[in-house]
Amino acid sequence: MSHSERARQWVHIGSSAFALLLRVLTWRQAALLAVVALAFNAIALPRLGGRRLYRPTDEARGFPLGILLYPCSVLLLILFFRDRLDLAAAAWGILAFGDGFATLVGHEVASKPLPWNRDKSMAGSLAFVVFGGGAAVMLALWVRPAIAPLPSMESTVASCLIAAIAAALVESIPVRLDDNLSVPFAAGVVLWMATLVEPTRWPASQAAVLGMLPWAMAFNAVVAYLGFRARTVSISGMIGGWAVGVVIFACGGANAWVLLFATFAVATISSRLGLARKTRLGIAEERGGRRGAGNALANCGVAAIASVLAIATHYPAESLLALTAALVAGGSDTVASEIGKAWGRRTFAITSLRPVAPGTSGAISIEGTLAGVASAALLAALGVALGLAGVHAIVPIVVAATIGAFAESLLGSTLEGPGILNNDMLNFINTAVAALAALWLA
């Protein structure tokens, strides 16, 4: 590792010392300092020898993207957590220490690469969790006395460690999305969800969840194995699908799992429709349509999180609505994509509406869009029939699923090609946008 990169990481880590000020500053004062830091990095730093921190890509671009995104992310954290600056400090600590030490340790310590990203090492990811989690806990506890009412120490520590693990997983995804953006976003989302958790809810749900768990584990094991034997999932998909199914079955209930299975079945069937044409055009699903763990987490991860929130917060109805919208969005988006590739006569780029080849990232077709809306309506109706949402929610869910699909197409057409996002991340964003849109609309 070059000296400039090592120096860059130490500056990256050392900048988090300013997070200590969040104990005595108001959120407005802290936000102002973040704006000042952004201006300093953009204008003064290059003139004070800061160009030695530039990476080759920064030199080619003409400006250091990461150095500018860092204070921007801190500013957004302060604005979002203006009433909980301890959580802003925690996410800042994960960004600085987690990301920084992951690079330092990853370059200095010999270790096996991660199975899903050979550019990242196990030692680097472990360092991310250890140093990022430790810094998050210490900074959050340091700022904690300034928060009213005083947050629980146990929940603060637990949420910081979980956020560090989640951010480490996001940082390890093989894409070109800048870590100064993805890491604080992932950490911030987890820390925000932790504020929704109500400890008194678990005792009321404990008996039901633990009673359902053995059945969920056994039933999903059988279904996952049959899916593997039917060549609809790979080995990793079998394991990932089993894990997601267990969480949704145990926390969301059997009816939530039925909707999960229905969306998977619809997606699998649509993937095999028009397979001859897809194969001829070279746009058929990889591995013969067998889905892996990444696909399971991308399409069902939001639903699994929502199922946990259904038993851990005072918002069970809203959580089940989000679960339903996320599953509907994942299933209907796959239908739209596969029908469009199989029978779409004309395919358009969503950004320009110009004709593009079928299978182009972010492309849409009239046939695929109509099929997606129709499948969303059917799946939403099933969710209502299963008692996961009220009848009034059908239209909001369908609209939300459509919004998520178009958001995915827009991001796919602009960010997937350069490698900033990959297909799994796009699918996760699709379901997350749909869940949030359904909550807002309903």
Task: Explain this structure.
It contains 17 helices and 5 strands. The protein is mainly α and 442 residues long. The strands form 2 sheets. A 3-stranded antiparallel beta sheet has the order 4-3-5. Strands 1-2 form a two-stranded antiparallel ribbon. Strand 1 (113-114) and strand 2 form a beta hairpin. Helix 4 packs antiparallel against helix 5, helix 7 (153-171) packs antiparallel against helix 8 and helix 15 (366-385) crosses helix 16. The protein is globular. The chain starts with a helix and ends with a helix.
Overview features:
442 residues; mainly alpha; three-stranded antiparallel sheet; 17 helices; 3% strand
Task: Reconstruct the topology from this structure.
Blueprint: H1 3-14, H2 27-44, H3 56-61, H4 65-80, H5 85-108, E1 113-114, E2 117-121, H6 122-143, H7 153-171, H8 179-196, H9 201-229, H10 235-252, H11 254-272, H12 275-281, H13 293-312, H14 316-343, E3 347-349, E4 355-356, E5 363-365, H15 366-385, H16 394-416, H17 423-441
Helix pairs in contact: 1-5, 2-4, 4-5, 4-8, 5-6, 5-7, 5-8, 6-7, 7-8, 9-10, 10-11, 10-13, 11-14, 11-15, 13-14, 13-17, 14-15, 14-16, 14-17, 15-16, 16-17
